[in-house]
Amino acid sequence: MDTKDIIYKLRKEKGMSQEELANKVYFTRQAVSRWEMGETLPNTETLKLLSNVFNVSINTLLGSPIKLICQCCGMPLDDSIISKEPNGEFNEEYCKWCYNEGEFTYHNIDELIDFCVEHMYIENYTKKQVREYMKDMLPKLNYWKNQN
User: Fold this and answer.
1) Is 128 helix (H, G, I), strand (E, B) or coil?
2) Would you state the pLDDT for residue 103?
3) How far apart are alpha carbons 145 and 138 in whole angstroms?
4) Residue 126: its pLDDT value, please?
5) Residue 148 and residue 11: Cα distance in Å, rounded?
6) Which residues does residue 91 pair with via DSSP β-bridges, in sequence order?
7) DSSP 3-62
8) If you count DSSP H runs as helices and E runs as strands, how many of each does the chain have, helices first?
């Protein structure tokens, strides 16, 4: 789905007119109309505002062009589990369990691995296999790369 269709769909789901949406993001009704017609795209700052108004990630507004994963635990991300900053903006780097309201949950990779081994259900894999997988995969993620 294109950004124009996503903005239109989300606006309709919220029961908002173009004028109401324009007022919330400090634009004119004509600008909203141009977005919905595909004539223009909102800039980055406006996408952030739209993200907050609709409570979806910027990635969703752009038609989910990239598959996001938590850069701490490796979990695939969608809007329901993406973390948020203290100001309410989405942080598309982490899941809400690894990063919440500006605070990281895990500071030790072994602690995260222990948690995942006990709580991840992966059919046909032993806890030992899950541990080995996590030990190999986690250090490749940005959060753990930056810890060294």
Assistant:
1) helix
2) 94
3) 9
4) 85
5) 44
6) 83
7) HHHHHHHHHHHTT--HHHHHHHTT--HHHHHHHHHTS----HHHHHHHHHHHT--HHHHT
8) 8, 4
For the chain, the 3-state helix, strand and coil shares in percent, each to the nearest 5, are 50, 10, 40
pLDDT along the chain (148 residues), means of 10: 93 96 95 95 92 90 85 91 90 94 93 88 81 92 86
Q: Which two tokens stand for residue 20?
A: 């109401």
What per-residue confidence (pLDDT) applies to 98? 95
The four Cα atoms 62, 98, 55, 3 give a dihedral, to 10 degrees, of 0
Look up tokens 């950004």; give the residue. Answer: 3
Nearest C-alpha neighbor of 50 from the set 77, 21, 29: 21
Rounded-to-integer distance, Cα 28 and Cα 45, Å? 15
Q: pTM of the predicted model, to two decimals?
A: 0.69
* Distance from C-alpha of 67 to C-alpha of 47, rounded to nearest angstrom: 18
Q: Output the CA–CA distances (angstroms, integers) from residue 13 to 8, 18, 90, in the order listed.
A: 9, 12, 20
| Cα separation, 60 vs 43, whole angstroms | 15
